C-alpha cells in the first residue's frame, strides 16, 4: 500500500537536542543526565528518540517497565537503563538478559533478584527507592533502619544508586519540596552509614532541575522538558524550550450547511448561520480527545477553526466559515505551529482538564511518527 491517511505526528529531533542543552546548562558539568523515555518517550516514539538522545550524550535512560527497556535494547541503545517501576515476579531473567537495572522498593523483590543473580554467578546493580513524601512506592524513612541491614545480607546485590521522587516540585514555592529534600538527605546518610557507597544520587525531576540546588545529587532525571512542555503553568516564560511534537492532518471534505443544521453525534453543535464545515480524518482513536468536542481549536491556513460538535472515533468536524479560501487537502494543525499561530500542549490540556503529559501519551500508535532534524 503506497497511499496513506494524512493524519500523522512530526517529531523534531533538533528541538529535542535543544531542550537537552537547556538541561545541561542548569547542572554542573560532572552531573549526569538520565533521560526519562517511559511511555514510548511520552508518546514521541522511544525507538527513535532514545538513539537521538544517545547521540547527544545522554548518560542513562529511565523507563517504567522492563518491556520498555527491552524495546530500547532492540533499538540499539547501549547505555544503562533504569527500570523505575521495579521488577515483577518471573521477570528476573529479563533484567540480566537485557542488562536492565531495577529500582528496588520492597525486600521481596530484592531477595528474588539476589537469588537470580546468585544462580547466574553475577551481581545485580540496583537503585534503592526512598519514599520521601510522594506516597507511592519506596521504603519509608522509618523503615530504613530495618531494611538496610537486610540488604547488606544480600551479597549478590550492589546498591548503585539512591532515588526518590518529588510530589510538588511543579509548584516552585511550595515548602513541601524542601521538606522532601531534607528527608532524602537524612535517608542518604542512613544508607551510607550502613556501609553502602551509592554511585548515583538523584531526586531532581524536570521541575527541580530548574528550581532547586541539589549539591549532593550527581544525576538528574529530565522528562517533560525534553519534549518541550512545561512542568506546570508556574514555569511559563522561565524556560527556553522548543516543542518537539506536532500533530497534523488535512481537510478531507468541505460541506456547506444551512442555519439550524445539527451535526455529529447527539447534534451537540447546531449551526446558527450558514456554515462551512471541514471534515478532518482524526478522532479520539488517534488521541484527539473527545473532551475537545465543541471547544477544541485547530489551525488551517494559520487561522484558528473551532471543533463543531462531538469528536468521533475517526472523524472531527471544524467550522471554517471565517477562513477564506479553504480547500480540500489543506493542512490542519491539531498541535503545533502554523504561520505564526500555535496550538500548544498546555492549551490542549487546559481545554480537557488535564496536563501536557497526558496529551502526548494519548496520541495513539496508529498515528505514524515522522522524524525530522536527524
Structure explained in plain terms:
The chain is α/β, with parallel strands linked by helices and 374 residues long. It folds into 2 domains: 217 residues, Alanine racemase (TIM Barrel); 99 residues, Lyase, Ornithine Decarboxylase, Chain A, domain 1. The protein contains 11 helices and 20 strands. Strands 1, 10, 11, 14, 15, 16, 17, 18, 19 and 20 form a 10-stranded mixed sheet that branches. The protein has an 8-stranded parallel sheet with strand order 8-7-6-5-4-3-2-9. The protein is elongated and about 80 Å long. It comes from Trichloromonas acetexigens.
What keyword list fits this structure?
single chain, 374 residues, alpha/beta, TIM Barrel, Lyase, Ornithine Decarboxylase, Chain A, domain 1, eight-stranded parallel β-sheet, elongated
Overall domain count: 2
Structural class: alpha/beta
Alpha-carbon Rg, integer: 24 Å
The span between the termini is 26 Å
Using the coordinates above, name the CATH class of the largest domain: Alpha Beta
| CATH fold topology of the largest domain | TIM Barrel
Q: How much of the residues is beta strand, in percent?
A: 15-25%
Helix content: 25-40%
Number of separate helices: 11
Largest sheet: 10 strands, mixed
What's the shape? elongated
Amino acid at each position: 500500500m503506497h497511499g496513506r491517511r494524512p493524519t500523522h505526528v512530526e517529531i523534531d529531533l533538533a528541538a529535542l537536542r535543544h531542550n537537552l542543552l537547556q538541561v545541561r546548562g542548569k547542572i554542573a558539568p560532572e552531573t549526569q543526565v538520565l533521560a526519562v523515555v517511559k511511555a514510548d518517550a511520552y508518546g514521541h516514539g522511544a525507538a527513535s528518540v532514545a538513539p537521538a538522545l544517545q547521540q547527544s550524550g545522554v548518560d542513562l535512560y529511565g523507563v517504567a517497565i522492563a518491556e520498555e527497556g527491552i524495546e530500547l535494547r532492540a533499538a540499539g541503545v547501549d547505555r544503562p537503563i533504569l527500570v523505575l517501576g521495579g521488577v515483577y515476579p518471573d521477570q528476573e531473567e529479563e533484567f540480566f538478559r537485557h542488562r536492565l537495572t531495577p529500582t528496588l522498593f520492597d525486600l521481596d523483590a530484592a531477595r528474588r533478584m539476589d537469588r537470580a543473580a546468585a544462580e547466574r554467578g553475577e551481581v545485580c546493580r540496583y537503585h534503592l527507592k526512598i519514599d520521601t513524601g510522594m506516597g507511592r512506592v519506596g521504603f519509608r524513612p522509618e523503615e530504613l533502619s530495618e531494611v538496610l541491614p537486610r540488604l547488606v545480607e544480600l551479597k549478590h546485590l550492589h546498591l548503585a544508586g539512591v532515588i526518590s521522587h518529588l510530589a510538588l516540585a511543579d509548584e516552585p514555592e511550595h515548602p513541601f519540596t524542601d521538606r522532601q529534600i531534607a528527608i532524602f538527605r537524612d535517608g542518604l546518610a542512613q544508607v551510607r552509614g550502613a556501609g553502602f557507597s551509592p554511585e548515583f544520587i538523584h531526586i531532581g525531576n524536570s521541575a527541580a532541575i530548574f528550581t532547586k540546588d541539589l549539591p549532593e545529587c550527581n544525576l538528574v532525571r529530565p522528562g517533560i522538558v525534553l519534549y518541550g512542555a512545561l512542568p506546570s503553568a508556574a514555569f511559563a516564560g522561565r524556560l527556553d524550550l522548543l516543542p518537539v511534537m506536532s500533530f497534523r492532518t488535512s481537510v478531507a471534505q468541505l460541506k456547506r450547511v444551512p442555519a439550524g443544521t445539527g451535526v455529529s453525534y447527539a447534534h451537540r453543535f447546531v449551526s446558527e448561520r450558514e456554515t462551512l464545515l471541514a471534515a478532518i480524518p482524526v478522532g479520539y482513536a488517534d488521541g484527539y480527545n473527545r473532551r475537545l468536542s465543541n471547544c477544541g481549536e485547530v489551525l488551517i491556513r494559520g487561522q484558528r477553526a473551532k471543533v463543531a460538535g462531538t469528536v468521533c472515533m475517526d472523524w472531527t468536524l471544524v467550522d471554517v466559515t471565517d477562513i477564506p479560501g479553504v480547500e480540500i487537502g489543506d493542512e490542519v494543525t491539531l498541535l503545533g505551529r502554523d504561520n505564526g499561530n500555535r496550538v500548544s500542549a498546555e492549551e490542549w490540556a487546559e481545554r480537557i482538564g488535564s496536563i501536557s503529559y497526558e496529551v502526548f501519551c494519548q496520541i495513539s500508535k496508529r498515528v505514524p511518527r515522522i522524524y525530522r532534524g536527524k
